Amino acid sequence: MPESDPLDGIANLDLGRADRRGYPEAVFCEGKSVDQVAAIAGVIADHPEQIHLFTRTSEQQAKALLGILPDAHWDQTARLVAWPPTVPDSTGGAVLVLCAGTSDLAVAREALLTAQYLGRDAQLVADVGVAGLHRVLSKLDLLRTARVIVVAAGMDGALPSVVAGLVSCPVIAVPTSVGYGAAFGGIAPLLTMLNACAPGVAVVNIDNGYGAGHLAAQISAPPLGPERSSGGSDA
Amino acid sequence: MPESDPLDGIANLDLGRADRRGYPEAVFCEGKSVDQVAAIAGVIADHPEQIHLFTRTSEQQAKALLGILPDAHWDQTARLVAWPPTVPDSTGGAVLVLCAGTSDLAVAREALLTAQYLGRDAQLVADVGVAGLHRVLSKLDLLRTARVIVVAAGMDGALPSVVAGLVSCPVIAVPTSVGYGAAFGGIAPLLTMLNACAPGVAVVNIDNGYGAGHLAAQISAPPLGPERSSGGSDA
Amino acid sequence: MPESDPLDGIANLDLGRADRRGYPEAVFCEGKSVDQVAAIAGVIADHPEQIHLFTRTSEQQAKALLGILPDAHWDQTARLVAWPPTVPDSTGGAVLVLCAGTSDLAVAREALLTAQYLGRDAQLVADVGVAGLHRVLSKLDLLRTARVIVVAAGMDGALPSVVAGLVSCPVIAVPTSVGYGAAFGGIAPLLTMLNACAPGVAVVNIDNGYGAGHLAAQISAPPLGPERSSGGSDA
Amino acid sequence: MPESDPLDGIANLDLGRADRRGYPEAVFCEGKSVDQVAAIAGVIADHPEQIHLFTRTSEQQAKALLGILPDAHWDQTARLVAWPPTVPDSTGGAVLVLCAGTSDLAVAREALLTAQYLGRDAQLVADVGVAGLHRVLSKLDLLRTARVIVVAAGMDGALPSVVAGLVSCPVIAVPTSVGYGAAFGGIAPLLTMLNACAPGVAVVNIDNGYGAGHLAAQISAPPLGPERSSGGSDA
Amino acid sequence: MPESDPLDGIANLDLGRADRRGYPEAVFCEGKSVDQVAAIAGVIADHPEQIHLFTRTSEQQAKALLGILPDAHWDQTARLVAWPPTVPDSTGGAVLVLCAGTSDLAVAREALLTAQYLGRDAQLVADVGVAGLHRVLSKLDLLRTARVIVVAAGMDGALPSVVAGLVSCPVIAVPTSVGYGAAFGGIAPLLTMLNACAPGVAVVNIDNGYGAGHLAAQISAPPLGPERSSGGSDA
Amino acid sequence: MPESDPLDGIANLDLGRADRRGYPEAVFCEGKSVDQVAAIAGVIADHPEQIHLFTRTSEQQAKALLGILPDAHWDQTARLVAWPPTVPDSTGGAVLVLCAGTSDLAVAREALLTAQYLGRDAQLVADVGVAGLHRVLSKLDLLRTARVIVVAAGMDGALPSVVAGLVSCPVIAVPTSVGYGAAFGGIAPLLTMLNACAPGVAVVNIDNGYGAGHLAAQISAPPLGPERSSGGSDA
Amino acid sequence: MPESDPLDGIANLDLGRADRRGYPEAVFCEGKSVDQVAAIAGVIADHPEQIHLFTRTSEQQAKALLGILPDAHWDQTARLVAWPPTVPDSTGGAVLVLCAGTSDLAVAREALLTAQYLGRDAQLVADVGVAGLHRVLSKLDLLRTARVIVVAAGMDGALPSVVAGLVSCPVIAVPTSVGYGAAFGGIAPLLTMLNACAPGVAVVNIDNGYGAGHLAAQISAPPLGPERSSGGSDA
Amino acid sequence: MPESDPLDGIANLDLGRADRRGYPEAVFCEGKSVDQVAAIAGVIADHPEQIHLFTRTSEQQAKALLGILPDAHWDQTARLVAWPPTVPDSTGGAVLVLCAGTSDLAVAREALLTAQYLGRDAQLVADVGVAGLHRVLSKLDLLRTARVIVVAAGMDGALPSVVAGLVSCPVIAVPTSVGYGAAFGGIAPLLTMLNACAPGVAVVNIDNGYGAGHLAAQISAPPLGPERSSGGSDA
């Protein structure tokens, strides 16, 4: 990089990641100052040729981003800012996102939007936890059309086990930090999911809707899609 | 106690507990030497008027007990010795014991036998975990006849949540130490059960089939049964 | 549900749960926005035929609920809103709620009110922890009239063990997040209760007064009460 | 099942799972007695139409299985018994299994064989941990031909992060229980993998090579393969 | 030490500790080879002027010690070897040792013997756990004669809280590793004791009967006893 | 109690504890509302015959207490309110309180004041942690005049081990929640203290200066002081 | 110290540490009041002959320090105040500080400045985490000129393992508290670093940039530098 | 590697590491079969030009190694096999290894031998824990001649803090798994060391004497030694 790099000593953007891996780098905003996020957006503004996602944005960070990228899309529930704002045409298999309760919506929507911005056809079904089992059983036909299912759940985290036992496609389980004391900020559903008695459950980090959506996009990628490209000479 | 107490310095049997609480004391054999267990059995042999349960017996302890109480009943799977061996006539509501997998059988049988020896009508349904949900759903009518249901499960421990959502009676959840690494000897199902999204789940200690069976006997006790008795002048 | 469902994409109310399980669904308000809680209340306002409990409400959520359901009952200590506000006539056995210290009152009151709104005769005895053992021993006669006893305790969580050793009915133990550093937000009393040396202790989640009250209502249900009903064709 | 079920009170085989989910049920042998495993094999011997995997077998269990199913394939390193022994023709995308060190081989081989018996083309590359980074970088072309990569690693568990940053396909990370004290039986690599800074990492349970291989088979399934089938009327 | 020190490179005995602190050093045998323990005993054999305690001895280590110090006292339950074998005349206040259950006896006896060998009048009362509260309440007069009480308990570890609320002297609480799964090898009673709602509870390490007995000897030391002596020029 | 008890349903003061145990009950203010604390103070105002300590008071609680008990003593660093404000004449042995760093002062002062209000001669030495060992070694003569030493330390918590190795009296170790991330809010020094290689270390809860001061007062009580009194007929 | 010590009862400055150990004491400001920090600065103002570092300062503490030491240097990102403000001439080997992401900058800058103020030539390279491995590989020549490398990383904490495998000098790994839920405030990268599969990784506390910089200064000290000095008569 | 690689599918020796990093790869034997270790030794036998260390060998593995490399040096206490057996001439600064107790000797000796085989002058001082502080203080002159000090300690792990406060060189702290229950297999001393109140403490994994010795060799490397060499074209 030239010496006039406006991010020198702060960040080292990996703008080649889309070419290298098929999916662009996202900017994780937690732990960054508003000034740092704004500086990064300033550089990104010169690169409208790829989708840029800013995840886990505070309200103040989101507003600073909209100052620099005025047409960006901000989903307040998901704490996500996307620019350019248009969702690309979808390719690959269908992604289905479920959440066990209303309190898990923020995480579920982050997964949903990430999958959509990375090029997949994705939809969300809310509040189908196992305390009222008829709710998820009534969606069985829909479940069986998906190439991959993301399930966000807190508390007992039991929904992914139940879903995985009903379908043949992989299930991505996202534990959320929702629940009473012994949920321990998501440890309880995390362990439940890692111990799912039905095989086929892929676990990601607590509250990591972005990671779930990204992984879903990779699993449901078209057979001849980006992951079949030559990649270039990384490393 | 008189000075000739054969258990002096070793144990202090609570033979009045059945009068006081309605249920006799059990002898937890783990951490006791074979000699200590045998000494206790020697004293108990003079008290055939109440049921004595020896829980978590090693094979060596069980054989020593049978030497002293030859007609005792030994269930090797449950690691339980009962004397006198005859199950009393049942009173109160029905107890149903479920286990998620074959590996949970030892715990489930300990609960089953405890409830039976404490005077309840109890039966066991094995291997109905949520990985194949149709197995437990096919038992729905049976589930709805119970006054209380005990569910033993390891791994994800998801079965109690599912069952509690389907019935109106209380569910006693017993986590078992069965599973891969991140089951952490039963911590994973323990947390799942404490965080059950369906209310009505009562949790007991890991692998504690005895405690589950005892609690089930109390919950399903007849309305005018032992717990309504005057109790005596304890404390 | 029709397409004009005002909760679409947010929540999926289980209004049939009272028919199916004998007890209505409650709305756990933590992690939900004020708007989401209000939207749910708007739907519920059309269903005065059953009791609706809103648990763990913030002050702002409670006030929004009172805007929509003006005659609702709000217990600020218990953080509970109930509508319709009238406690039903009680059936079944007596529920007794104890708390070890004044700092455990919020949890104890949540259990008390839940049991009362679910149709039980329930009363509360406060501040009877084991540091002054004479306090609980002086209540022995009252303890022995209960069909089930709920005990809320933080710190050492020793009270349920002591109580369970004195009575024949089941004890529901609720650990609270009260205490010095090594109470670890309720882990210490939770473990104490799971390891109670007296059998008959049913443990629920940390600070989960609602769960304790619900379980107490189920255990003390009348013999021919709702849990004996046919249930309907769930699942 | 008929009343003469030889597994009554022990197990409840889910022989319909292959039809329902596209993949057959496996028998987890840990915690089962040799007699129980043998009884299950006796029933399975009548069902050569699908692959049966017995995982985590002890030497004694494996020998009992070979007594009943003499032509079964036993991989001692992977502790896996498969019957019928012939690997089916492969369909779908390529599966690549990496392990960080020689001590991770047992887990890696369990994943490899599972993927192969579930119908995938799979191969193994051993001992390519990040302490000598040139080892994995020299395999970059091979890595980029895979539809999904399984990475087994203990100790620091850093290999999945590095691999996921180099490829576009999903990476399944399996923590192993290999390492010095503070690896805590696999907790250290488990946390590393859940926190991978590169998106696209799906985590399964500690030492769960079977789960990793099964998930890999699902992710790399042919586009029109079993997960597109109608499934039947489960639940 | 001279260069011919037989323990060079192995151990560095602190034979001056009795002069410096008033109590001699003990030899913790766990983690030491039989040869190392024997070498230490060989040096100690020249120092009959003070009491030497060997704690946590294996049977093999104890037998090696008896080979070198034939008149040593070996308590198999407590795993303690003492030499010279004679308990000194007692000074200071009375030490009372309680244990909650028979399974806690090994720890309680280690505390008892340590206090006696360090010069105190000490006695043991066994099996007085809170599940049968009348057992400890019947000893109230004895409890109130003690200058310090040691309480060993596993499982819920509730006994020290109850005892501390009944007496004015300090209570030393020793958690033991006895109990079902969620006792976690003594963590549960350890936390209970650290969180005792009654002040006056001093906690020592899990199963550390030696430490409890030593601390008891210090607390009950005579007012003008060793801790008032000039001490010498340590450090 | 009469029905007009102003604390009915809130608290159950144990005003007889001083007679029963020799030391009065303290009021732990954390988790209590300002109104509850004030109500308790209102009752206490009628009992100037014994010392009342209010611990862990918030600023708002302390001000409310001073409104009701205007001459009470408030130590803002220790968060302690005492009434009546006069320290009683001291009896018994000397109590010495050490703290490792300035950040541990709040806890150390709470211990100091508690011991003084419970009737002991106590003094404080600040900032003598082991990073500069000469600081504590220069106090060796003072250390050896104490009947008991309280040591408050965060971070590595190493000071109690060092002090206990230098003196013959008991050491009460109080872990504090001071330190970098892996101090885990006091867990690190708590474990250090429980594992002290020098015997004679009594551990209390994290940040529990009150408990340390109380225990110190008990250990250093005069030989014929309150703990020798008849006690009365508790329980 | 004289009786008029302005820090009496608060702090015990170790101004001789630079002579004794070669490096001056730093003032850890967390947990200290603004008044306490100011009082310490008042004493330090008389000692311009050595560098004084105030670490983990709040904004309010930093401003108070600048009131007393107006020419002090305040780095807001690192939360560090240094006085006198001039960095000394560097001696010894080169120190290189890396950070994995922008969110780790605060910790990395604290290490950088500490090493510089303690007399080393140090530089920082930001945002070179393993998700884009080419970033760190492009710095290989720079890495190999260092005498010691500090690596700050959160999330998976994988960068130190990779770097240690590429160079011969020691690597100091500092885990940071950056990441999603299962990073557990830095536990995940801490464990990764302790388990680094490449030897040569020295771990310090979570977010402890000061400790990392100090250790780096010691490792890269000149061969005949302060650590070879006579030291004086400490202890 | 050629196709006839005898380690194909098992291991991937990094024989170039000495050239690349200045220190050869070691073979961690835990988790490897005797056959695998023997196969590795067979390849290594052709490379006497560098030192090969086999760490954590079982007795059976060690004997197999001696069968293939008959003149290898086997230290049974340290569980280390070295070949060729001759320690190289030492270069660089002095390494001093301390251990707190006799039970820590195995770890300390592993560190000692590793440093010696990697080319350093190293010596061991045993049993100088802080319970008898005079032991380590009497070695102060020796401590101050070292370029780096390794300290192995279990239980409270307090020795590194004390030593680091007395010297100017870095201290490498190795927690050992020695101690009573709440040492938790080394977690207690690990946390103590990470939280050392004296800066300059570098922590390695529990019981990892090899890692400590390797790091010590790197820190005490000669100024113009291997880490200044050009390294070659790794990666």
UniProtKB/TrEMBL annotation, chains A, B, C, D, E, F, G, H:
One of its GO terms (biological process) is 'de novo' IMP biosynthetic process. SMART domains: AIRC. GO terms for molecular function: hydrolase activity. InterPro entries: P2CMN_synthase_LarB, PurE_dom. Pfam families: AIRC. It comes from the Bacteria. Residues 93-222 form the PurE domain. This is 1-(5-phosphoribosyl)-5-amino-4-imidazole-carboxylate carboxylase. It comes from Microlunatus endophyticus.
